[in-house]
Amino acid sequence: MGLMSWEESVQWLRNQPDQQELVRACYFDDPLLESAERFWQSVEWKSIAELLPIPKSKGNALDLAAGRGISSYALARDGWTVTALEPDPGELVGSGAIRSLIKQSNLPISIVSEYSENLPFEDNNFDVVNCRQALHHAKDLGKTCREIYRVLKPGGLMIATREHVISEPEDLPAFLDSHPLHKYYGGENAYLLEEYLSAIAMSGLNITRTMAPLDSPINYFPMTDEQMYDYCTGSVAKIFGEMITQKIFSSSHFIGRFLMSWRVARMNLHDHTPGRLYSFLAEKPIAATN
Question: Which contiguous run of DSSP H or E holds residue 153?
Answer without folding.
Answer: strand 152-166
